[in-house]
Amino acid sequence: RKCSRRGVLLHRPERSKEDTWGACREAALPKSLEQEEPGLMGVLHVLTFLSLLSEVFAAKIKSTGPVEVTTGHVDVKVASTKEHRAADVVITNLQTHKLSISEGKQEDWHPFDGIGALSAGASSRLLQDYPKEQRSEILDLLFKPRYGASLQVLKVEIGGDMQSTDGSEPSHMRFRGEKPDCSRGYEAWLLKEAKARNPQIRTYGLAWGVPGWIGNGTFYSEDNIKYQVSWLQCIKENFEVEVDYIGIWNEMHWGASWYLFELADAIKAAGLKTELVLLDAVSGVDPAFLAEFKQDEKLQKVAAAVGLHYPCEANKGLLDALKPHPSTRFWASEELSTVADWGGAGCWGRMINQNFVRMNATSSIAWSLIWSAYPNLECFGNGLLYAFQPWGGFYEVTPPVWTMAHTTQFTEVGWSYLPVGEGAGLLPEGGTYVTIVSPSLDDFTVVMETLQGTCMYHQGCYHEKQAVLTQRISLKLSSRLEAAAQKGDLEVWATNASHQFLRLANAVFEKDGLIHLLVPVDSIITISTLKGATKQGDAAVSDTNATKELPKIPKPTFFSLPFNQSFDDVAVGSSPPFFADQGGAFEVVEAEGTLLSRSKKGNKVLEQKVLQPPIAWAGFSPNPFTLFGGTNWTDVFASVAVRLDNQEDIISRILRPSPLVEFGKQSSLLSMAEKKVRHGEESPRQAGLCVRVTRYQFFGSRTSKPDGYCLEVNVDPILNIAYWRLTLADLVLAAGHIGGIGLTKVIDGGWFQLGLQAREARIIAHVNDEKVADLIDTTLPIGQVALGCSYHKCQFDDLHVEHRPPACDACSVPMAPDKGEARPVLGRVLNVHFDYNARSCNPPPELTKKRSDFTGLIGFAFSVLYPAHLQALGRLMIRGGNEMATSHTVELLEMGLDGGPEPTIIIASVALPTSPNGQAGVRMFEDGFIYAELQFQPILHPGKTYVLASTEMAGGDVFYDRAMGAYGNCHINLTGPAYKPVGGIWTVDVTAPSTTFGPLNALILPLPLPPSEQACFSPTSLGEGYDINEIDLRFGHFHVEASCRKPYVGTAVVSPCKKPLDIYSISGCEPPLSKQICFSPTDGHEGYEITEVHLHRANFHVVVSCAKGYTGVPQASSCNRNGGEYKLSGCHPEAAPDPEDHPDVKVNYSTNVTRVTTRTVVPNKTEWDGKVEVEIHKKDHPDVKV
């Protein structure tokens, strides 16, 4: 069990009733020095950064008079009493560096084009689904001037119905002649929200791909010019946003001059002022572009800017080409792409400065704007802040917001960078500084940074010289800048790893005419004449003097089950809440009654809308599928009604040619390659349901399948047959034909039912309520649910997902009816691990590596706490090994009698098949372990260390590497993973007891103990609220005394274990009422709209109303204990309509019916059978159900 820094509970798929989020608390920030002693405020007024300078003060300062504090870097003498003044502060061992800032020649200034962020790759998908209050606060944090990140540029993807990193963004025009609809998706909405908060924000659109009809498969075509311009027009006409810039094609070939000229002319002809940004390239610059740009004056004039992605170092060829043409600026048009921890914040703050200092980049744009996508997708955490739990409203304001604010809250687009060597450059001991000035020089801002965070690209893209010591800077301003500074306050703001965006004492000019300040290692400082900067509305933020209460952020929550979606409450044309398309586009539509004989008139369904593969970014986009749900769902059952477009739909689409258009001058370099990639045979008709979708990896995978178990139905239109397949990613696990009435339904466009269950390692598939597959597979333990099909219309309805817990307690497993209940040594194994802070685009849920490259013994070491019979030895069945490897020798060894590390005694040994084969004494359990029973059962004793090992042969069967998570069961102590190569010695890693090779397992049966040894165990976690005295733990003589530790209140109650070897329990002590918290109910919240104002028991306040379709008098009642769930009551479903309103249903009932409360409606058709269920209430006895 582990709590991530974002509050997500990892490695624990289910949450028990007793498990609360109280165990996951934010680590306390270090106290600022102001909190330590009030006398230090005098220090803050002179040394403007000492509140962040933790390395200067290595010891706590006592308030008894002047104290010498010595560190390895700086000697500081501090007067800490109120009688002493700041003049008593003496700094030694620090070299002072004089830094002069002048404006230089105005013709050498560079326009400041703004710092921004990019919403693309579906990284903003979940933001729209947030509750209104949290969504508004998040948008304020991003776009509201002088509030949070204060974006000056918003760049968005122009959707193309294709996978662009973490999903597919919808196109505004899916076929030639369609009326543009740019309201699809969320980018137009984001543009409008950004403009509403900051009318001056610059906007920028860029395509990653386009629909396949464009140019009959050719990106650079007149079709695409019309497509791009239609998007600009649609945004302006429908959202009142005129996009300032438009790019060409993200990280693909730059195109051709004719295309750029015709696009610019078409934009002008449409009455738009949008300018072109060229390249948006990621790996160098095409020499052909440079040659043409240098020679073609028209090309020079058509480009407002040229952008590179993640440049890090200057591209000399490009900068030389741009130098004679200052009107064409250079931008880092995509940056950051690094997880939003402090290291990512350091990367971003450094790049904003460094990109100008190194290459005169006048704008830097971070990808992504926000991480509002599921955490099992690529490049997790690449955003300014986190918001990927819309169902509960939890979000996290991460450090990149504040390193960005150091520039954006103190500048305005239209200001200018002072040139390198005058107002910008390198700090003397490492780091950078820039100066940005208003046109009249009435205002200016200086940003200094020594940030050391690792960027994901270019080996970190660090400073040329890393700062290792705090630097004392004496700042000398030019006369004009000094005059501007003397007109008012010169504000100072600072950020480091522990304190973000704090306002310090104003900078002052000393008698020598200089401003003296300290710049610590790994920090950023802003000095500005511009007023109005705030931290979420607070203009004087520190740890102790905040004047404004920050918005309350809801706690993290799981995506709860059961989950039902009929799509009837979703707006037509929208994506359902929490669904994330990964290819194609899934939208809610009104299904015509003639197509849905089983549904009521006006029923809404989910439909896949994209009918041909797109012209995709990087040449590939998977078959359409959409994800939803908890990324840590484990044991689930999912069902959905599915409909494929019928035969006539397919034939009409094949026979309806797409009219050819005149392309003009094509960019022939790409057109043939695009046609080859994107034009193939008609996609097969198929639709499917997936569970345990652990992750989806787009980059480099070239697969249409996510890592999940998928049940799909396929139709062969030539042979007129239908068949089902159960797959694991691209691997087919089982398959079969569909016959009878099911075949007719599938082929003729009727509705059929898919059901898929994953419980422990058993996967069960149903088609039309018929079980078609039942197998064991241990590959994927957790994941989401997905729906998918090919590039044709398919529809889904009545989606249902529920939790299906394991059939038995993993702590008690009967090996044989007469052998008693044995207990596995390992209660649980997990072949997936998480690294949410990786500098990688590999999805964080990483499947443990399978190996077949080792010859020797692998396993783990353990000990027992009480004597036990060893009943069986086992090994997990793992898919993917050599088919010729049919068995393993699994053995249990005891450590040598001499106490040495080498196991020398073989306790037991079995020959274990790699898969079930009917062998006597061999059995496979639901969790995927195969056990062989021992005829003679040795006894395992406490105090001894055992090694459970399996023989492995290189090139044979596979086993999981040591990253496999292992959790000991029922009175077992795990020592650590163990291995021994052939001819080598045993190695046991005692530093990683929760990992194992294999994995292997054993079944043990605890022996009856003599009364003197029968005892209760102490709870594994007693909590901090108890003082405990364990006098006697023997069963029958149990005596434990306990009391509540102050300030906890209540009466401690100790209950003995119910049987020997179990754990005793303790309860009754709770925090003071002022600190007791209630939690949201995990169940019973359907039918309620909830606003959690205060969850503390002392001032509990939850506003609740009945949801749509429910009625009554709602009430929220506080919990009766700390960490308990509050209760909801009062709402019940509205009365169902009278069945007589439905002519397809025959229901006979007596006249004394008050209301029909529940009903299962079955159409009165001869080909249907079943029953109609009606619940009625008598008028005279309304509480009596009949």
Summarize the structure.
About 15% of the residues lie in helices and about 35% in strands.
Integer average pLDDT: 83
* SS summary, helix count: 15
Give the biggest beta sheet: 8 strands, antiparallel
Any idea what the radius of gyration is? 34 Å
Distance between the termini: 49 Å
Structural class from helices and strands?
Answer: mainly beta
Beta-strand percent range: 25-35%
Note the overall shape: globular
| Uncertain residue segments | 1-91, 594-601, 650-681, 814-819, 1139-1143, 1148-1165
Describe the protein's architecture and organization.
Strand 36 (707-716) and strand 37 (721-728) form a beta hairpin. Strands 7, 20, 21, 22, 23, 25, 26 and 28 form an eight-stranded antiparallel sheet that branches. Helix content is 13%, strand content 34%. The protein contains 15 helices and 72 strands.
Features:
disordered N terminus; single chain; 72 strands; 1186 residues; 8-stranded antiparallel beta sheet; 15 helices; 8-stranded parallel barrel
Topology of helices and strands:
Blueprint: E1 2-3, E2 9-10, H1 33-36, H2 41-46, E3 67-70, E4 75-78, E5 90-92, E6 96-101, E7 110-111, E8 115-119, H3 132-143, E9 153-158, E10 162-163, E11 168-169, H4 187-197, E12 202-207, H5 222-239, E13 245-246, H6 257-269, E14 275-281, H7 287-295, H8 297-302, E15 303-309, H9 316-322, E16 329-336, H10 342-359, E17 364-367, E18 386-389, E19 394-396, H11 400-408, E20 416-417, E21 425-426, E22 432-437, E23 444-449, E24 471-477, H12 479-486, E25 491-495, E26 502-504, E27 515-519, E28 524-528, E29 563-565, E30 580-583, E31 586-590, E32 604-608, E33 625-628, E34 636-644, H13 647-655, H14 668-678, E35 685-695, E36 707-716, E37 721-728, E38 731-738, H15 740-747, E39 751-759, E40 762-767, E41 770-776, E42 784-789, E43 794-803, E44 813-814, E45 821-824, E46 826-830, E47 832-834, E48 845-847, E49 850-851, E50 856-864, E51 868-876, E52 887-895, E53 903-913, E54 922-924, E55 929-933, E56 939-940, E57 946-952, E58 959-968, E59 972-981, E60 987-988, E61 995-998, E62 1000-1006, E63 1026-1032, E64 1039-1044, E65 1049-1055, ...
Parallel strand pairs: 6-24, 8-9, 8-17, 9-12, 12-13, 13-14, 14-15, 15-16, 16-17
Antiparallel strand pairs: 1-2, 3-4, 4-5, 7-20, 10-11, 18-19, 20-22, 21-22, 22-23, 23-28, 24-27, 25-26, 25-28, 29-43, 30-33, 31-32, 32-43, 33-42, 34-39, 34-43, 35-36, 35-42, 36-37, 37-38, 39-40, 40-41, 44-45, 45-62, 46-58, 47-48, 49-58, 50-57, 50-59, 51-55, 51-56, 51-62, 52-53, 52-57, 54-55, 58-61, ...
Helix pairs in contact: 3-4, 5-6, 7-9, 10-11
